[in-house]
Structure formats: structure tokens, C-alpha cells
Amino acid sequence: MDSQVDALEGGCTCGHVRYKLNSKPLIVHCCHCRWCQRQTGTAFVINALFETDNVELLHGDIFEITMPSPSGNGQKITRCPKCQVAVWSNYYMGGIKDGISFIRVGTLDDPGKLPPDVHIFTSTKLPWVILPPDDQAVDIFYDYETTWTPDNLARKETLLAKSTEEGFDQQLSITPTSQN
């Protein structure tokens, strides 16, 4: 685990699914798009992006559903089979797909540890949501080169290369360390 972030754990509402994050996030998005608003039933969603290999399922089982996305490439939402809480998603992300997991920050035991690095799709932000004046915000989406740190860009490029080597449809899976 990187020294910049203590080990983070989280899970669903009923406690059936528990996971641990074994690295710092690549970036944390607060997405204000209409799709996220509709799919979560809230004003926005906060997702922390992690390499899927750094997401450890501690116990429980999960199920996945595929939903449409604005890009047309779809997204896979991973949920608890008992309480139905979405714990993470996988998006196309330039071909990385299953190699990167968008952890729903609200499912962390301490969601306050991962505030947003950037607010995206603010062009469809609800008018009563007031963003802090110093927060980075973009109308639609940002430029990776100017928004991500050099270290995290290198991590992203490694994921993209791995996805290309293994094929875009390769399924990378999260293996539980224990099953309860």
C-alpha cells in the first residue's frame, strides 16, 4: 500500500460484501452527468478509480449487471446479491475495461478519506449543488495529461498496455481471499 493512503476498506449496506483497496486511487471523480444521477437516484456519484488487481474481495459474493453508458460502450455494475448496493463499476475507459474499477466512495467505511479530485459533467450539474470554489471542475470531461499526476498516468498506460496484450474482452476478475 502506498504511504499516501492508509488501507481502505468498505462494503455494502448489509455487510455481506466486504472489500479492501491495496493502493492509492488513480483519481477520484465526482460525476454530475444525467446518467449517474438517474442510475444512483442522487445528484452525483463519487467514484475512486483503482486498478482492479488492487481491489481485494474480503468476503461475500458479488453479481454484475451491464448497463448502457453515454459512450455507447456500456458499463458493468458490481452489486451485493443480497442488498443490491452497487460497490463498484467498470467502464470502457479507452479499452482498459475490467482492468480498472470505479469504487463507489460512499461504500467505503470512511468515505471522507477520498474527496473528489475533479468534478466532471458539471454542465448537467443540478443548479442547487454548489461546488467549492477551489475544486477543479470541467463542463464535460478533462484532459488526462493535465489532470492526472505523472505517476498515475504511468499506471494508466500500464493498464492500457496490459489490456491490449490480453485482448480488450479479457475478463480480469477479483478473487476473494476468504468466503463467508
Describe this entry's structure for a reader.
This protein has helices at 34-40, 144-147, 150-166; strands at residues 8-11, 18-21, 27-31, 45-51, 55-59, 63-67, 75-79, 86-91, 100-104, 118-120. By secondary structure, it is α+β, with helices and mostly antiparallel strands. The protein has one domain: glutathione-dependent formaldehyde- activating enzyme (gfa) (Alpha-Beta Complex), CATH 3.90.1590. The protein has a 7-stranded mixed beta sheet. Strands 1-2-5 form a 3-stranded antiparallel beta sheet, with no helix packed on it. The radius of gyration is 16 Å and the shape is globular.
Give the structure's gist in a few sentences.
This protein is of the alpha+beta class and 180 residues long. It has helices at 34-40, 144-147, 150-166; strands at 8-11, 18-21, 27-31, 45-51, 55-59, 63-67, 75-79, 86-91, 100-104, 118-120.
Overall mean confidence score, pLDDT: 87
What is the makeup of the main sheet?
A: 7 strands, mixed
Strand percentage: 25-35%
**Straight-line N-to-C gap:** 25 Å
CATH fold field value: glutathione-dependent formaldehyde- activating enzyme (gfa)
What radius of gyration results from the CA coordinates? 16 Å
- CATH homologous superfamily annotation: glutathione-dependent formaldehyde- activating enzyme (gfa)
What's the number of extended β-strand segments?
A: 10
Number of domains: 1
In the sheet with the most strands, the strands line up as 6-7-8-9-4-3-10
CATH architecture: Alpha-Beta Complex
